Amino acid sequence: MRRQNLSLVLGAVAGHSPLSRADVAGRVGLTRAAVSSLVDELIGRGAVTEAAATASGRVGRPGRALAVNDRGPAGLGLEIGVTHVGACVVDLRGEPRVWRRVERENAGRPAAEVLARTAALATDAQAEAEALGLRVEGRVLAVPGVVPNEPAGLVERAPNLGWCAVRLADHWPDPDTVPEPENEANLGALAEYWSTEQTARTFVHVSAETGIGAALVIDGRLFRGARGFAGELGHIPVQPDGVPCACGARGCLEQYAGEAAVLREAGLTPHEAADPVALLADRAAAGHAATLGALDRAGRALGLALASAVELIDPDGLVLGGAYAELADWLLPSVRAELAARVSVRPWAPQALRPSALGRRGPLLGAALTTVRRIMTDPMLLPAG
Amino acid sequence: MRRQNLSLVLGAVAGHSPLSRADVAGRVGLTRAAVSSLVDELIGRGAVTEAAATASGRVGRPGRALAVNDRGPAGLGLEIGVTHVGACVVDLRGEPRVWRRVERENAGRPAAEVLARTAALATDAQAEAEALGLRVEGRVLAVPGVVPNEPAGLVERAPNLGWCAVRLADHWPDPDTVPEPENEANLGALAEYWSTEQTARTFVHVSAETGIGAALVIDGRLFRGARGFAGELGHIPVQPDGVPCACGARGCLEQYAGEAAVLREAGLTPHEAADPVALLADRAAAGHAATLGALDRAGRALGLALASAVELIDPDGLVLGGAYAELADWLLPSVRAELAARVSVRPWAPQALRPSALGRRGPLLGAALTTVRRIMTDPMLLPAG
């Protein structure tokens, strides 16, 4: 009960600060004495600060302003992509305070080497955060692969990295800072849900980096599937007898709307640019016919796969995240056209499909926010002052 | 709290009777006095009966045997199919006590006429149940159509009946006995979950009558989608440029694995037999080549659509229900082969796909069991004695 009330008070402060203790009591419906005790505990645990006096112009004894601590507990997010490593620290308000991204080829490198480099970046990011007065309370690592519900700490398969059954603890240099792995598409969806204005509570978030993943948020919660493998949109068959896929099947969406397929169709080679997504966007903006054709074809394949998702799951919304968000101007028309043609047994509004506001920053932000959201839900996770 | 404890005690009696009051107290971890008061209330509400004395050979003062009342509260299930109407009454133990099915062409008939006939069958079934000492406490109607989450009482679309926006209350003769509509595939899945031994708690249940529907049970609960339209497996595209479907799209599963498509491929006409499913099974059992070919083709299309469901939802299991259960001997090999070829980014056991034990009885049974399950969860729904 105290746990819930601490969360309630912290949520009120986060959503409406500056508030005095009296304001909080009025808002959450607890007595002033109870709120004061809860606020004292939140201050002790470093979650909340109390200023000298409010600047409110209201009549009566001025309360002192409470605010969520921006020099206290923080979440560290890490990301291993096929061609980059990232680190991010967000404070308890959810604001990113440290953001690092290093381009680096990770595909086919030994997991131990990739993880050691990620750990080094994590150490740098943490030091930078500490210099800002922040204290890292949790570490989550976004990976482009399958993370089963159990056992904890395992990346079962990350085909685009060449990983199979990698247990992070086996390779991470410092046993005290081993991060918790999570699928990048799941984290991108959560970041979208947590940090942007959402009308949809049940939605499918599609993200593309080198591969294509999706995440299902059902009634505001991530649905990971019976074993943690939900959302493998990239391997939905869109052409039953289509081209072979690296996964062993044929005609998978990834072969039509994945980065390599789009680049090939656009007449580009994957290593032609440091940032192939930006290159595609530039060429499309310049009216390059082959690029426009490739994106149209990708959009139609994506629309076909998403039609299956709509028929099965009946979401409120569909979000195009990751690289797709940056290519949305050219993808949306054909995805929407395909959905309009396919989804006909129920009402479906074209606007229910929209690009993510976070784009490729989503997974890393989601990784960092995971810790913050846990603390907001249960402030007793923080060490007592 | 009392609500929960009533449910706890009723569940103990249902699962382990005969039990004495003392046995129940031992099992649920409440005091004997508390259990006695709860048992008295359950007896007063008609949910439980208490016999004169147990026949147990145990030492000590013999308790009197408690049992779930089989002459008390009951659930009435109704079903409107394309070519039949059904009614069923189950007692509080979940046992079917009345079962009626009348073959009758409903497609294209006015909804008012079909509902009036269903209401007449419901009246007969209820009278038969009352003669057995049962008291109908709730009415649910299984329909082959889309039932939105809201407003209550609406069948939004039932294409194979020719219904569009039918509000049951507008046509049902007696305002006191209007049933609650629910999609037949959903009810089939719930019946499977409630009445058979299940290892899977997250599964996709496919059912076929004239159309093809599916239902998603996630962690033991029916998932209806954001608006109530989840599980439209029949309109998943399996051939992007395939044959036109009645829904307006092309290449929908229903055009390859629906009853009409299978009959056509098998060289039969829909009206050749009173029971086309039984006819298909007979011909397949006799080795009729065209029938075997049609079922193999249907199984491959179904496997393709189910591969999408597995990639997206990651269920523990897949269940073939309705007519598919009766054709499972000939469908399972090709569905399993297709799943094996398509599902390759995760472990997938062929045994995770299995036929329903209930077959075409599922939806009607699920409709009747809905009321019973509600009472078991909240016995205070019953009028106090």
What does this structure look like?
Two copies of one chain form a homodimer. With 385 residues, chain A is α/β, with parallel strands linked by helices. Chain A folds into three domains: 2-68, Winged helix-like DNA-binding domain superfamily/Winged helix DNA-binding domain (Arc Repressor Mutant, subunit A), CATH 1.10.10; 74-187 and 363-381, Nucleotidyltransferase, domain 5 (2-Layer Sandwich), CATH 3.30.420.40; 197-356, Nucleotidyltransferase, domain 5, CATH 3.30.420. Chain A has twelve helices and 14 strands. In chain A, the strands form four sheets. Chain A has a five-stranded mixed beta sheet, with helices on both faces. Chain A has a five-stranded mixed beta sheet with strand order 12-11-10-13-14, sandwiched between helices. Chain A has a two-stranded antiparallel ribbon with strand order 1-2. In chain A, a hairpin with a 3-residue loop joins strand 10 and strand 11 (212-218). Chain A is globular and about 70 Å long. The two termini of chain A are 20 Å apart. The mean pLDDT of chain A is 92. At the A-B interface, strand 11 and helix 9 of A face strand 11 and helix 9 of B.
Summarize the structure.
By secondary structure, the first copy, chain A, is an alpha/beta fold. Chain A has helices at 2-16, 21-28, 32-44, 111-131, 184-195, 254-257, 259-265, 276-285, 289-313, 323-326, 328-342, 362-377, and strands at 48-50, 66-68, 73-80, 84-91, 96-103, 135-143, 154-158, 163-167, 180-183, 203-208, 212-218, 221-223, 317-322, 353-355. The first copy, chain A, folds into three domains: 2-68, Winged helix-like DNA-binding domain superfamily/Winged helix DNA-binding domain (Arc Repressor Mutant, subunit A), CATH 1.10.10.10; 74-187 and 363-381, ATPase, nucleotide binding domain (Nucleotidyltransferase, domain 5, 2-Layer Sandwich); 197-356, Nucleotidyltransferase, domain 5.
